[in-house]
């Protein structure tokens, strides 16, 4: 993981012209698309690792943060939300998959190739995975990320949320959950 307050992208016109307020979803989508279309902004930060997703903060101020994320097919964020932040993602190179949580059914998977983008509100729960070797995506969040929710589904189907720092690498949660049936039995026996 690589993180910096500003990774040398301060001379980028689109970042210098940001409004001094929380950005809307369309504004976030326009921002990530403009940056994705300009490899000079992000190309020097590209690196790949199958064990740990590589990411760099290109810009962070009081209203928005912008990141470049590098993907291999082994990379997986796990289920997560962005707490109070709206966001947008533009794929600059390769392809990623956005998985949307569906209750009682398999996740809805949307493949997002280079040149495409999407946005979401703070209520959105998803996971992202790399599809093609050497994929790159640009992400922007407003207000800037501070906390995120990381989710896991127990063997009995119970969804659990853990609050994590924006600086932590999102990965699938592997720790086993206590047996929910046993927990429910204990709760019934000890009101």
Automatic annotation (TrEMBL):
This is Cysteine dioxygenase. The keyword Transmembrane does not apply. Fe cation binds at residues 80, 82, 126. It comes from the Bacteria. Belongs to the cysteine dioxygenase family. The keyword Zinc-finger does not apply. Keywords: Dioxygenase, Iron, Metal-binding, Oxidoreductase. Pfam families: CDO_I (PF05995). InterPro entries: CDO_1 (IPR010300), RmlC-like_jellyroll (IPR014710), RmlC_Cupin_sf (IPR011051). Residues 172-191 are annotated as: Disordered. GO terms for molecular function: ferrous iron binding; oxidoreductase activity, acting on single donors with incorporation of molecular oxygen, incorporation of two atoms of oxygen. It comes from Kineosporia babensis.
